[in-house]
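task queued by scheduler; priority normal; single chain, no ligands, no partner chains; default sampling; output format set to structure tokens
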Amino acid sequence: MGHPVTLIHGDGIGPEVAEAARLAIDATGVAIDWHQVDAGTSTVEQHGASEAVLTSIRKTKVALKGPTVTPPGTETQSIDVALRKQLNLYANLRPAKSIPGIPSAFKDVDLIVVRENTEGLYAGIEFERTTREAAEAREFLGRLSGKPIREDSSLAVKTISVLGSQQIVDFAFRHATVTGRKKVTAVHKANRMKSTDGLFLEIAREVAKDYPNLEFEDCVADILCMQLMQKPERYDVLVMPNLFGDILSDLCTGMVGGLGITPSVNIGHEYAVFEAVHGAALHDAGQNRANPGGLILSGVLMLQHLGEIEAAAKLQEALESVIAAGQYVTYDLAPVGVTPVGTMEMAEAIAQALH
């Protein structure tokens, strides 16, 4: 028996890129015991992920997931949010690495964005302006702060905890240590949000003392955005609260060519769910034209997580060589004058490059 891994096909192009990723990962020779389950618009339950999905991930501990869609205009919770909450996947890790053959305004970018996944403004504590709860919250907060809040205001609560900050910053430092990184930068707005981001920064400085062999610094979020455009080589591992992580991870992704070739993992103390960051692209479903690179690179992260370091490096190298050659790539990666290939054909080319 090989490493047990839950395979979630997802929606839209999900089944195609999931099968392409499975083909490429299997070609490394690493034995994977795939447990296939379905999740997405047809199977997600009213209040979160289906029990079959959760049961499988709790058994295998690791999942490779295709993109999923939450139906608009419903109360159905996003499968992604449900998995993060129910499996306590408190950390999102997204590498941003330049790949030869992918057009970009930047060269030699090699960053890791570590995003806190469960707190901050994305905790979902909101009050719609016309509700009784919003009126009570406005009155309470206005009295507490001494600053009246307009009656036409909706409200959101930003939560930053000691534990949440400790575990995400420690995760960033541990990842930097095991991957040979040199520096961790805590990203915040403590200059304006002194209680919430101030707490995050305070905890980050305390945690940094446990890792004397790594350089540590902090940077205000807007200043970091400017500096990434000017001198991205200054940075290595970036760790931050949820909202900033959402924005900056996409910024860094744009620096290396876009969502189609970007991997990620949502991870906690027990479980890890690896997935590409692009969407389900429903209009491309079933056409064998979607780029499988993001999910294959998520497979690289998964192999690293499973301890298959050599196989992960070979898969990364194979994918990069296929993209650099430019002959067997999907339409979004094909150089001018080159006829693009389909999803599975690109995966097959990567599998061949492994041998």
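post-processing summary
- The chain has eleven helices and twelve strands.
- The first helix runs from residue 14 to 26.
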